[in-house]
Amino acid sequence: MLRAKSTLLSFSQIKYDVKDIKLAEKGSKRILWAEKKMPVLKQIKEKFLREKPLKGKKISSCLHVTAETANLAVALKAGGAEVYLCASNPLTTQDDVAASLVKHYNIPVFAVKGENNETYYKHINAVLDIKPQITMDDGADLVTTVLLKRRDLLKDIIGGTEETTTGVVRLKAMAKDKALAYPVIAVNDALTKHFFDNRYGTGQSTIDGIIRATNILLAGKVVVSAGYGWCGRGFAMRAKGLGAHVIVTEVDHLKAIEAAMDGFEVMPMREAAEKGDIFVTLTGNLNVIGGSHFPLMKDGAIVCNGGHFNDEIDLKALKKISKSVKNVRDFVDEYTLRNNKALCVLGEGRLINLVAAEGHPASVMDMSFANQAFSVRYLVKNYKNLENNVHIVPEKFDNEIASLKLNSMSIKIDVLTAEQKEYLNSWQFGT
Fold first, then answer.
1. CA–CA separation, 106 and 9 (whole Å)
2. Residue 233 annotated as lining a ligand binding site
3. Does the annotation list 197 as a binding residue?
4. Could you report the per-residue pLDDT of 282-315, keeping only the tens digit for each?
């Protein structure tokens, strides 16, 4: 592990693995900038600092190492927790933020942007080595590692949280197989998380990543959104707003109807493959764009992924039918097919909003990470009463977070009168 010579906040005495500790000053500016846009989490941090609800608890977190995540880690530490952080994706770490967390906040971080698969899992094991009471996941790799390879840790773990749709899907599969060995709260399923984070955050940040990687004009382009869940809805909405013609592919009948009613063309991927200029996968599933689709695409088509894992695009199949692969621009690899068409894959098929850009705006992550903080506190108080299953975030947290967010935006709303409450709670009233 890297070691620093400075004794600032005793960070030289902790284990960590970051790209360059000298990047810390730049990272500090990012963290403080994000904090200004995260007023709800800031209020929670101040409350945690007074009450210390997480005192003595060890938290192993596997999240995207960004300025927003840094503010969550700082809030948890303010609550009395010992927080260790690793990356939930090899290409999404902001190296300067990782350095600042170590140097300025004495929080051990194990994350380097561009780390290989071996290092990725080495870092996961490094944060698990503290024998945590709580795991905090974005994709469920921590839970999976514990269940498959580190079962000795289960005696100490009281619960966990999960940040993203893909992770919740994996966790529900574990629960169905009776493999989930401790309770996990699906933070992703809170309304103040997926309704805003997935729709507005993913919608904007995915387009931000595509534009930063390619500098392409979206107006007039045919954009294919694979999936019309909350992430797909947000992305399609934003692409349409920038002048793109949007096609949606789906496997869910209800979502397909919704996409059609929202004004988008809906068709199978095989048909869309011939029409699209830009393809974005937002499904959380495997090989959504596969070997049969690539030869049908236009010369110069752009393919990228907005989902958590890099298996939504079948890159192995693409490589098999390609004559050559070359990097033509940062985060852009050009595959030349045997039919001489060239296809551009962005960010090695990993989630483009964090690979080529900065991920969701801090004001959106404010609500997502407020849910994380409340959920961890809830676990500490209630874990003995929770089954080894996937649990929803209590509704009262959603309402409290929404209220705090509205206050921070100086927005006021009406309050029900006593008469209105009586009407809503009765059945006797009629026409």
1. 6
2. yes
3. yes
4. 998 999 999 999 999 999 999 999 998 889 999 9
